[in-house]
Structures are given as C-alpha cells and as structure tokens.
Amino acid sequence: MDMPLSDRSTKDNRVDADIAEDTAHPLAIEARGLVKRFGGTLAVDGVDISVREGAIYGILGPNGAGKTTTLRMLLGIIDPDAGVRRVFGHDRPHEIAKLIGYLPEERGLYPAMKGVEAIAFMGALRGLPLDEGRRRGAELLENHGMGFAIERQIRAMSKGQAQTVQLLGTLVHRPRLVVLDEPFSGLDAINQGKLERMIRELAEGGTTVIFSTHVIHHAERLCEGVAIIAGGKVPYAGSVEAARDRIPAQVRLETRAREGAWLAALPQDARREGDFFHFSLPEAGIESLLKALIDGEAGILSLSIERAGLHDAFVHIAGEAAARALEADNAAEANR
Amino acid sequence: MSNTTATARLTTLQAAWVVARRDFLAILFSRAFIFFLLGPLFPIVVGGLAGGIGSKVQQQAAAIEIGVQMDAAQSAAMIDAATMLREDAGVAIPPLVPLAGKVATDAPEAILRERRGNYAAIVSGTPEAPVLTAPSDQMERFRGAVGLVAATAGGTSPSSFPEVATQEVVTSAADVKRNRVQTAQAGQMLLFLLTMLLGGMVLSNLVEEKGNKIIEVLAAAIPMDAVFLGKLFAMLAVSFVGIAVWGTVGVLIYLGSGWDMASFAAPAVGWPMFFAFAVIYFAMGYLILGSLFLSIGSMAATVREVQTLSMPVTMMQLLVFFFASYAMANPGSTIELAAAIFPFSSPFAMLARAAQSESLWPHALAIAWQALAVAVLVKAGATLFRRRVMQSGPRGARSGKRGFWRKRAADPAA
User: Fold this and answer.
1) Are residues A37 and A110 part of one domain?
2) Among all residues of chain A, which has the CA nearest to that of B208?
3) How high does pLDDT run on average in chain B?
4) Which stretch is the leader sequence (chain B) (predicted)?
C-alpha cells in the first residue's frame, strides 16, 4: 500500500479486519509492506494483500505495474527487500512448494516433451511421483478434450494447446493455492471462458486462486477480492464490492419539464446532457429527491440508478493514467 | 506451520534428481547427443587409422627384425630356417638378420639399450642353446618363435625344442621419463578436450532452457541450487555415457588396428590406476569448469551473450592447460606444485603426475583438495545462479545484447 494501515479508510480497514477475523476461512496469503527494488528502480512499494483460503483473488493493473514481481515475492522466487509475506502461515513459501501451483506469465515447456510427460514433470517438481503424474496427466488431458496431446510433443502443439498443457501441469499435484500470472493472455474467447470455468471449479473445490490480469472484466466476473496495483503501489486491496462502493451510484434522470422550482432539489453535482440529468446518488437516498420532483411537477419520464463498475472504481482509485495504460494493454493484446 | 506443510517440498537433492533425470534422458535421446558422440570419434577414428598405419609402417620399416649373433654357419642356418618357416610353412616369424658392421661383436644387451641399430631383439648362443635378448615387454612375443627357428636350424624339430635362455634389456631412466611424458601429454590433452566440450554443452543447455522460458517454472517449484546441481550432474552422467561409448570404440579400434599400447610407456602408477585417476580428475575438472560455465549461463540471456561471456573463461582454461603442460615438464618443481594446488589446473597437473610418479598419496591429497574446491565453486556458482538467473530471464532475452548490461537496473516488474 502507498500508506500505512492506520491511514487507510475505515471501510478498507473493516474489510481487512473482516478477513483476518474470519476463523472459518483462514488466510492463504498475507503480505504486509512488500518492497522490491531492482537497482535504482522501485518495482514494488509497500504492497499489502490478504487472501482468504478458498477465495478467487485478482491483482489488477497495467503491464509494468509490479504484478509479476509481487507474485514472485509471494511465491518466494525472489525475496522482498522489506516487508513480510506468509503463505498458509509460512513465511518461506518455497518450503511449501508442494501446496502451490504456479503458471508464470512467460509460458515455458520443453519442446521435445510429450504432453503427458510435461505435466508429469511439472508434478514431479512439486513432489508428485512420475508414474502418478503420468496417470493424472493423461486423465486431465482427456477430461479437457485434449486426449490427442498425451503422446504429442509440445513443439507440435498450437500455442493455446501448449498453454493448456502447462496449466494442467500447474494443477496436476492438486495444490491448495494456485497462482496464475496473466492466465488469460494469449487465449481466444472460447479458451478464456473455459479457463474462467476452471478457476471457479477450483475455488468450489476449496482451492485458493490468485491471478494477475490487466483485463478488468475477468477480475470483476471471478474475484471476491482484488488488489489494484499501479506504479508498484497498491492503492486498494479488498473486496470487489467495496471497490465499487468507493464511487457513489450514478443517477440518470429524464423529465418532461425543462424548468421549475424542482431544479433546486437536484444535487449540486447534477449536470444536464441533452434531455438527461446526471448526478451522484445522494447519501440520504433517492426517496426525498423523488418527492421533491413529484411535488415540483417535473414530470419524470425515466430514472435509473447505476452502480459503479470495477472499471469506474479502477479509474477512481488508480487514476486516469493507470486506466489509460490498462486500456492500451488491452488494445495491444487484442491486436496480437 | 502445520504438520502437512512441514514436509511440503522436495529436498535439494530430491529436486536435483528430478532435474538431472529429465536433463539426462532429454540429452541422451536427442539428436544433439548423436553429434556429441560422433564429434570426438572423428579424431579417434582418424588417430586410430593413422596409428594403425604408422604401426604397420614402423613394423615393416625397422622394429621387427631380430638380429642373429652366432658364427656364420649357425647364423645362416637360423636365417634359412626362419625364412622357410615364414614363407613355406606360413608361420608368423619376423625376419632374422645377421648382426653387421661395428656392432657384430658387441654385447647384445648394450646394442639394444643404446639403440645401435634397429633390432627388436637379438639371438645369440647356438641353435642348440639359443639366448634371446630383448626388452621385457617384447620377450614373450619372440621367445616361442626363436625356439622354433633354433629347433628347425638344429634339425631337432619337431621332436624336441631347445630351451631359450633370456636376457632382459633394462630401458634407461631417460627413456622411461621421455615416454611417460608422452603418456602424460596424451592424458592431459584428452582431459582438456573433454572438459571443454562438456562444459560448453552444459552452458548451451542452460541457455536453451532460458530460451524455453522454463526456468521460472523451475525457480518457483524447487531451490535454484537444485537446478544448478541437477544440470551439472546430469551432464556429468551424459559425459560418462559418452566416455563409455568412446572408450568402447577406442578399444575396438585398438584391437582391430594392431596398434600397440606399448607406443605409450606404461604410466608410473600403472594403466588401471591411471584410468581410474583419469576418470576422477575428469569429473573434478568438469565440475569445476561446469560450475563456472553455469554461473556464466545464469548471467547471459542470449547465445551471443554466452559467447561473449564464455570467451574469457575459455581463454583462461587454455592458459591453465598450457600452465599444467609446462608444469608437467618440471616434475617436483615449485611450478608443478602450484599447478597441482591451483584448482583449475590441478586435475591436469595431477593426471600428468600419475603418468610420471609412482607415489599415490599426493593423489589422495589432491582429490580431497579438488573436492573441496568443487564444493566451494558449486556453492558459489549456485548462489550466483540463484541471484542472477531470475533477473536476466525472458525480458533480458528480448533485449538482446543490452540485457546483461542492463541487468543491474532491470525492471522485471510487470
């Protein structure tokens, strides 16, 4: 985080407190004040994250924001310069490697290996005996409609197929925590849908899933919690709902009358665009405003209240620059 | 920490085994391994053929003549008998020639020791009581033939054969030393070529791995020390397979070409012990050089970077080889001691010493010292590897030559 825990909003503190005190769902990941420098570059600056066991959690931010470095620190691939991280209560994540599955952003497989061997090898790295890895690997491939890949070399597979093999290799040892770095990157819409389903199934089975992404709608659809990261800082970490609540709901009002005393009842931030008025939902609610509009004979033609999406929350929390970077990443990926 | 998490990882050795097993099998069943095997076979085959031809030429030209030092009639009878046995009966008997010129009356042992003429052996005495004078390693080769020739010349064949008295020629110390130096040189050269070849292979294997982007998968799952150890020992195992294949081919060529190991003087510690030391010193030399190359590989992102970075090491290894070669020519000197102590030259220097000196205790000491150096270098290399390998990974690879120099300030954040 870019500010100490004590300086954060009451709502954020409440979210973290709720998480910490939820003994039925202990924390899978807890990070406090993670800092990482590379030479003179501050890559990650005081990241705080709490992820409950069994949750789906997203790290949301543009490329270069520090997502991968954060994940690498959480996994023990690199050590933080400052701060602490605990995975299942363990402050040396490497020592519980059998409990973790990791799909790095830069996908990597041995081109000469057959699909089933690649999965078994990845399982073996996490302590799964090779024979069992082969058995489970064949089963996983069959279940995902990739039986043809069992005996096929990686070099003979399409990029998407190889990515699926690597993902299955990440899961073959049945980890309690699955960490996916940009898992949707490079997948077509159909495979993205399959992956979303797979992530949900994992969580339903009690596995904690944490993934990084620069695509907001994946995080919005899947995650119960998100960390918004920009420039190495995490200005927000908590539930998706709480992030959306950071921005008041927006009201869109259409009236028959153009003028009248009822205009004085509209909130100060109301602005007129054509036939519509736009303004934030008053803290007191919509009821008193409705009464004033009816009494003032405004002639309400339509009124809608829209809750802010995660995208709006991201813009509000991370700022316009980060949002533009995120959109540029999405555009670049779409063009790839 | 719960009990489940207490053992929830592979030990470094278990993880190294997983990596080593994969690397070993992957390399063994790759096309590159075939070329790896074939590469050194070319010089072996060419060397074997050249050795075989040379050996034949040598046999025909000079060495396989037996001088006869008897009176004229007996000499003629012996020579006729040998000619008849060889040409009419097809018995493989080398030509016999009478001693001629100044050496005709010299003592046979002195003629051979001082190389007065090109005689492989000399027969003196009489056909009834022949005396064979020859170097110890040639004695058994000629003894039977001389007995048969003498019996034929004396007219007693095939009912009885005379007892052939023998007189061994003691080779001079200078000859022994000169010949053992040749053995030592050959051993050093072989050791140098093998370590350089395999050190280069382990390096390219690592670079390929970084290119495959598998390194982060490994780094996330197991200690980087294990990756380092696994790769190092997998290549050592591959090299033993290679050596076994090359050795077998070498033995076949040796058996088929008629080339004689006697071309090389027996090393001071004897051939079996010399081969054992060669294997041990090869392993030590390879592990020392391999850990150095792997450390370089951890810093390099591209093949071009590897070439740039490994060039000084290759040059250094060449200098080390020359240093060890120079030291070999000065046994017992301070330079030889320095070459035996300096870890990078120690395997070469000690193999040369095994060819030249009988004492075994310096080898025990040197092997312990080299093992210590291997442990230190492997540990240091693994530490460097762990620190650098994730900082010069895929992003560095994309940045090409600038990747290494940018590394310190690299920003792997994404």
Assistant:
1) yes
2) A110
3) 76
4) none
Closest approach of chain A CAs to the CA of B1, in angstroms? 6
The answer to whether residue A311 sits within a structural domain is no
- What residues in B contact A126, CB-CB < 8 Å? 10, 221
Total domains present in chain A: 2
**Rounded to whole angstroms, what are the CA distances from B277 to B165, B168, B333, B353, B358?**
38, 30, 22, 10, 13
The predicted structure's pLDDT at residue A336: 64
For residue A11 the two structure tokens come to 């709502």
Q: Long-range contacts: B30-36, Cβ < 8 Å, 24+?
A: B30/A112, B33/B238, B36/B197, B36/B201, B36/B238, B36/B242
Which of the residues in chain A have pLDDT under 70?
1-25, 334-336
B interface test, pick of A45, A125, A131 with most B CB neighbours within 10 Å: A125
* Contact assessment for residue B187 and residue B355, using Cβ atoms and an 8 Å cutoff: yes
Does the beta-carbon distance from B212 to A111 stay under 8 Å? yes
Range of the domain at A89: 5-244
Cα of A253 to nearest chain B Cα, Å: 42
Cβ–Cβ of A109/B223 closer than 8 Å?
no
Domain boundary among A211, A226, A244: A244
Closest CA–CA distance from residue A32 to any residue of chain B (Å): 18
* pLDDT over 70, % of chain B: 77
| A254 located within any domain | yes
Whether B200 and B287 have beta carbons less than 8 Å apart is answered as no
Distance from CA of B15 to the nearest CA of A (A): 7
Q: Does residue A97 share a domain with residue A40?
A: yes
pLDDT computed for residue B54 by the predictor: 47
The answer to whether residue A232 neighbours chain B at the CB level (below 8 Å) is: yes
For B340-393, write each residue's pLDDT tens digit. Answer: 888 888 888 888 888 877 788 888 999 999 889 888 887 887 777 767 656 533
Same domain as A61, residue A83:
yes
In chain A, residues with a C-beta closer than 8 Å to the C-beta of B222 are 97, 125
Identify the pLDDT of residue B193: 81
Locate B95 and state its tokens.
């030509």
Q: Decide if A163 touches B, using CB distance below 8 A.
A: no
My answer on whether A86 and A205 are in the same domain is yes
What does pTM read for this prediction? 0.70
